[in-house]
Amino acid sequence: MNKTLLIIKREYFSRVKKKSFLLMTFLVPMLIIGMYALVIALSINGGDNVPTVEVIDDSGIFSKGLENKKSVKFHKSTQPLDQAKQKVIADDGAFLLHIPKDVATGGKLELFSQKKAGLSVMSTIEDQLNDQMRNKMLQDAGIDAATLDNIKPDIEIVSKQLTLEGEKDSSSGAAMAVGFAAAILIYMSLFIYGIQVMRGIIEEKTSRIVEVVISSVRPFQLMMGKIIGIGLVGLTQFLLWIILSGTLMTVATNVLFKDKMEMVKSQMPSGQQQVAAQAGPGTDIVKAIQTVEWSYILPSFIIFFFGGYMLYSALFAAVGSAVDSDTETQQFMLPITLPLLFTYIMSFSFIVNNPDSSLSFWLSIIPFTSPIAMMVRLPFGVPMWELALSIVLLVGGFIFTTWVASRIYRIGILMYGKKVSFKELGKWFMYKG
Amino acid sequence: MLSIRNIVKQYANHRALDNVSIEIEKGSVFGLLGPNGAGKTSLIRIINQITGPDSGEVFINGERLNPSHISKIGYLPEERGLYKKMEIGEQMLYLSQLKGLNKTDATKRIKYWFEKMEIESWWNKKVEDLSKGMQQKVQFVATVVHDPELIILDEPFSGFDPVNAQVITNEILELNSNGATIIFSTHRMESVEQLCDSIALIHKSKKILDGKVKDIRNQYRSNTYRVGFSGDLKSSENEMFEVIEQASDDDLTHLTIKVQDKFSANDVLKYLIQQVQVNEFMEVIPSMNDIFIQKVKN
């Protein structure tokens, strides 16, 4: 055990001391904060490049004009159609909307532009036109304008979690975001650190130190020492990221944006308070982030990362022991990559939409898929027993893969210059002693 | 010291060791000889507890092989190397701690060896900055730093230049005279013949011969002599010996002769002296290589 500790120490410190580790540790939180700041800054200032659409209304139905929105501005044009078209040809940022006379009886509207209009521009225009058209038709059908103004439903769902401890605000948007982020992080880090394990073993093999070392320790100790050492490097990195991002984020919101948001609000005339409210996504994000239950998401993240890492890195270790160079790893990587990729895709297409379906349940219980699937499900609320079962199975899973891997590893590390097949690996697995 | 008893090691479709038994005396220099692929490395890996035998047992000082023996063995594998990006001092510390030394002892012993090998200044260098020969020196230190009772060297001289090979040989012999038991494993039999007290020959997974070098050679003496003389040997056809090989330059003739069983070397010499001017007469003792070839042929 003492020797395993020595190996863990070497694996850990030789990596943590590297410049690339320090760089990653500080760069990533900066990037996260940078993006976070960008989102808030953008939502406060609004985009600068809001396209303006020139509108030629031959029908006269939209005489009131179209309302400016965040993503599109409208300008009523008095020019004749041909002249306006010339302008579009001359300016690649110009949009021209032509409403024909017979629009009420099914005439097609045309949007001219050099570049294809974006989806959000199109849908904003369509929504507005539909609204106004509907109003016009309703008015024609005898409903007066006052009634119409009153029928403006504005439904917003506030999601509240009701538990024994009482009700509390929850944000399913933020929950999803956290689940996504955790799942992506686990998915990526399983690869990043798993491949580090594999590379480390290939390096020991190609530098021929491995036989020197295993004359002092058992192959299993060397493998586990490497896996645990690199896993701890991963945990250290995450911990530093969380601490650094947390600190920076708090500083950023309190110092940088508080002033700015108050300033924006105070500058607004009272009539435009609504616009000020729209500038709020920054504060909404902060509020939403606060509703996420970090106290159990974070420990779960650590557990599922480490469990998943142990499970997969053992397999990566087996692959590393079987080959002589990185280039030969391809064929063996597929069975490792496939379940991960499958879970990743399922998580984002299925589990987020149906977090409580039986498929989601199974994906978050089976050890090979649970590290990612459970993280996506977790923010939606998962019963304690499911969480416990999943963790127990994950532990069982990595004990199993480690056992399988160690049987291949002990033979593989001493095999040089041999092209290995899956059949060969099977044989190694069966060897005694 | 080391007793290997009836070891069998089977791989999928290949038997690497077939019922091999070897006894190695304490303080001896032992040669484990045989061509590539004979099973030498498999046997060494079993002694080092890297792999286990399918059947058979190994005893060290009368104790059945167990993990506590790891610190008593120094092993220089045929496939050897070091961590390329690690500093040499740190690396030596790591390797000797893995062998069971504590940090203080390890530092002391590494310093001792580095001074002895005149490589003290390399402590902070990385392995990748050293030449191949320098790396081999460091590697040797790593093998013996924990003062092992048994030192196993698998193809020790491959990769060494002649000067370094001599340095290492001297160190090994010194360790031996201080009580360490040495095992040389090599397919180049001539390279260790003079160093070894005893040998075992392994061929196709089986031990085909073992014993003291002196005894084996005596056993394989074939009454063959080499004679150099000037003058004419009247009749080379005689009942005393048979000429195997004949070569002559200007006035000197060289013969390799096999003396018939009934006669002794002295008889032959007496006979020769009467006829010619003898200036060379020596027994041809077979080399290990010759013995091996002879043994394999049978």
Give the strand order, joined by hyphens, for the main sheet of chain A: 2-1-3-4
Rg of chain A (C-alpha, Å)? 30 Å
Main sheet specs of chain A: 4 strands, mixed
Distance between the termini of chain B: 32 Å
Helix content class of chain B: 25-40%
Tell me the β content of chain B. Answer: 25-35%
User: How many β-strand stretches of chain B?
Assistant: 14
Number of helices of chain A: 16
Q: Which sheet architecture does the biggest sheet of chain B show? A: 6 strands, mixed
The shape of chain B, in one word, is: elongated
Quaternary state reads heterodimer
Q: Identify the overall geometry of chain A.
A: elongated
> Mean pLDDT of chain B, rounded to whole units?
88
Radius of gyration of chain B: 24 Å
General description of the model:
The complex is a heterodimer of chains A (433) and B (298). Mean pLDDT of chain A is 80; it is low at 269-281. In chain A, α11 (294-322) runs parallel beside α15 and α12 (330-351) runs parallel beside α14. Chain A has 16 helices and six strands. In chain A, the strands form two sheets. A four-stranded mixed beta sheet of chain A has the order 2-1-3-4, with helices on one face. With 433 residues, chain A is an alpha/beta fold. Chain B is of the alpha/beta class. Chain B is 30% helix and 31% strand. Chain B contains eight helices and 14 strands. In chain B, strands 6-7-8-3-9-10 form a six-stranded mixed beta sheet, with helices on both faces. In chain B, strands 2-1-4-5 form a four-stranded antiparallel beta sheet, covered by helices on one side. Classes of the chains: A alpha/beta (433), B alpha/beta (298). Chains A and B meet through α1 and α7 of A and α2 of B.
